[in-house]
Write a structure and sequence with these properties.
heterotetramer; A mainly alpha; B mainly alpha; C mainly alpha; D alpha/beta; A: mainly alpha; B: mainly alpha; 9 helices; globular
């Protein structure tokens, strides 16, 4: 892939963002489960 | 007020005297520091080879090596002042008896005298072994003194922190080096200036500012580190 | 409402990403599309910075206002999450540097500073790992976090002197003005707001998770 | 000088997941002793360390009052004299040098160490590292009493002492309490016969 091209930037950032969001969702689910347990 | 201050000074002095008396009986810190510094000194100047004699390149590289030797020798000997108290369980008695800020000052004075003694040994030997000529010796001595102070102050505070943790010997380097790095950069820059005979410039003010900041921070926060 | 908020943040960030590519113009003097990295790289770095600052504030609060363990927990989580953000900022920065300067790493002042910050907070985390007792760990780590805030400003004077910079002007330039195309600035600030929200969201969840885990351990 | 009182309530401390102390309360006034008993691991030493200000309790109040004023942790620490198995001295220094150092820190009279050493029968010129365990215990007693403490915290105080050693340290304790200004908290696995014990606290079980 060409460096400096749009594709490169899109891919890197989408990886970061989806990663962070998936992490956030998983965390939220775990906290909710644990809080329900109490 | 006056009595309070003189009591405080007497306490700090007592800690300093106690540390040196223990040191003279065992010679642990003096031996390790001196041997460590001397060995690295020989290794460095022997493996350096011709670079040491090339004045142009030497003037920029050699100050780095000098301060790295001092830094690592300090890291080998300085943390002991607090680690030993915790390891031999004398820290409990000291916690109940000493005023924290006076204790910090006593320990700092002890560390400082060790570092200055070390510099007195290492610096002339280093200059002779790598045949480095210093154009402004006054600045060179000043940098050694102020840099040594910063090294002792930072190390004393970090030593107090790691003495209460596990894995002390490696942890000291991990915690101390990021804190000492600005100091290291400044003293290397100033030592280069001293070697080249250039004026000290802003770096000297910044070095003194660093010394003052770390000392005041240590005096203020050491009680929190030392006591629960 | 509460279940809606994460989706709102989702949409917000999606809009920001769209705007970064289609709304904002390209900045002058950058190779290809590379100036668009700005909208991802800069907010990450800012957010990490805010996180570390917040950690120092929580540490000070722990030490001097009540010694509550939840302040310590908040400081620890802020450093951990801030560390991740900081790593991401470093990586995006390095990728951009490869495009612009031809190498991933070239000891630019910014790169030097960010690696020093990473080392410092790495040391903070290893200190936490080396103390078992909760009260002691909180106390020692808080002092170290504050020491960082006192010592790191020195790099601000020193680092530019020992390295030379190719880094573009900060958003607020050396004359203290904001010098940026207004559409770019809008997207940048929106991205920062999204990042900060994301940071504090993760922070909040992690703190609750840890409080629950600690409560569970107690019989 | 006015007498010192100590009161603590709901003191809890855990180490990791292990709750060593769970909500312990008690009270002692000047001239009295509190006797704390309990099996090994019941938290006697932990309680004493909390009272001395060497360990922060997770929850609970420790209040030390003098002239109707309550003291902060640093002031309390200054009034503590402690005999405990984990108190050690500088092995490279002689007994007299150790005590001179601590007398300096404690602002005690310079003659005080020698007087106490003579009472307990301990040679001042012996290296602290070369003491037997019974002599070490006597040194701990001398160290604890250097500055005429208000709060005397004794953790297994007669451990390793021979008959004369126990007699003289019991006398010292009696004198400390008889002066009516300070108090004592005594922790021991089994019950002890000590005069002026006003309250007993059984930990664990």
């Amino acid at each position: 892939m060409e460096l400096g091209g749009l594709g490169w930037i899109v891919i890197v950032n989408l990886v970061i963002w989806t990663g962070l969001f998936l992490y956030l969702l998983r965390l939220g689910k775990r906290v909710k489960e644990l809080e329900k347990e109490r | 007020m006056w009595r309070l201050a003189s009591n405080w000074a007497a306490e700090a002095l007592a800690v300093f005297a106690k540390d040196w008396r223990c040191e003279f009986r065992t010679r642990y810190a003096l031996n390790t520091l001196a041997l460590f510094a001397f060995t690295t000194l020989v290794v460095v100047s022997a493996s350096l080879g011709p670079l040491g004699t090339s004045a142009a390149r030497g003037a920029s590289v050699l100050p780095v090596l000098l301060w790295l030797i001092l830094l690592f020798a300090g890291a080998a000997g300085l943390p002991r002042s607090f680690v030993h108290e915790e390891e031999t369980h004398t820290a409990t008695a000291l916690r109940l008896a000493a005023t924290p800020s006076a204790l910090f000052c006593g320990k700092l004075a002890y560390g400082l005298s060790l570092v200055w003694a070390l510099e007195l040994l290492v610096a002339p030997l280093f200059l002779a072994m790598v045949s480095l000529a210093v154009r402004s010796p006054g600045l060179f001595v000043l940098v050694l003194a102020a840099g040594g102070f910063g090294l002792a102050a930072g190390s004393t505070l970090i030593a107090a922190i790691i003495a209460q943790a596990q894995g002390r010997s490696t942890l000291f380097a991990v915690l101390a080096f990021p804190v000492l790095l600005p100091l290291l950069i400044l003293v290397v820059e100033l030592t280069r200036n001293a070697v080249a005979g250039a004026p000290a410039g802003m770096a000297l003010h910044q070095l003194l500012l660093y010394d003052g900041t770390v000392t005041i921070f240590g005096l203020m926060l050491f009680p929190v580190v030392w006591n629960p | 409402m509460k279940t809606l908020l994460p989706w709102l943040l989702w949409v917000w960030m999606a809009v920001v990403i769209w705007a970064a590519f289609f709304y904002s113009p390209l900045a002058a003097g950058f190779i290809g599309q590379s100036s668009r990295v700005l909208f991802f790289h800069v907010p990450l770095a800012w957010t990490a910075f805010v996180g570390f600052l917040a950690a120092a504030v929580w540490s000070a609060r722990y030490l001097f206002f009540g010694r509550r363990l939840r302040d310590d927990r908040a400081a620890a989580v802020a450093v951990e999450v801030g560390f991740v953000f900081c790593v991401l900022a470093t990586v995006t920065g390095a990728l951009w540097a490869r495009i612009m300067w031809g190498a991933y790493w070239n000891w630019d002042p910014r790169q030097t500073s960010i690696i020093l910050v990473l080392i410092f907070y790495g040391a903070y985390l290893s200190l936490r790992g080396a103390v078992e007792d909760g009260e002691k760990r909180a106390r020692l780590a808080a002092v170290y976090a504050l020491l960082g805030v006192v010592v790191t400003p020195f790099f601000f004077f020193i680092v530019p002197r020992i390295t030379y910079s190719l880094h573009p002007d900060s958003v607020i330039n050396s004359r203290g003005e904001v010098d940026m195309e207004s559409r770019m600035l809008q997207v940048l600030l929106a991205a920062f707001a999204g990042n900060a929200a994301l940071f504090f969201w993760i922070h909040n969840l992690q703190c609750r998770l840890r409080a629950l885990a600690e409560g569970k351990a107690r019989p | 000088m006015s007498p010192t009182d100590l009161r603590f309530s709901g003191v809890s401390r855990r180490f990791g997941h292990l709750a060593v102390l769970a909500g312990v309360s008690g009270e002692v006034s000047a001239g009295q002793a509190l006797l704390v008993t309990g099996a090994n691991g019941s938290g006697k030493s932990t309680l004493l360390r909390c009272l001395a200000g060497l360990l922060a309790p997770d929850s609970g109040e420790i209040e030390c009052r003098e002239e109707g004023r309550s003291l902060d942790a640093a002031e309390r620490r200054r009034r503590v004299g402690m005999v405990a198995p984990d108190i050690a001295f500088y092995e490279e220094l002689t007994v007299a040098e150790n005590l001179a150092f601590f007398a300096r820190l404690r602002r005690a009279r310079p003659e005080r160490p020698a007087e106490l050493l003579e009472r307990v029968g301990l040679p001042g010129d012996r290296m602290a590292g070369a003491l037997s365990s019974g002599m070490r215990q006597r040194l701990r007693w001398v160290w604890a009493l250097l500055h005429r403490p208000r709060l005397l915290l004794l953790d297994e105080p007669f451990q390793n002492l021979d008959r004369p050693g126990e007699t003289v340290t019991r006398e010292l304790l009696e004198e400390h309490l008889a002066a009516g200004e300070g108090l004592a908290v005594i922790a021991n696995p089994s019950s002890l016969e000590v005069s002026r014990v006003a309250a007993r606290l059984e930990l664990g079980g």
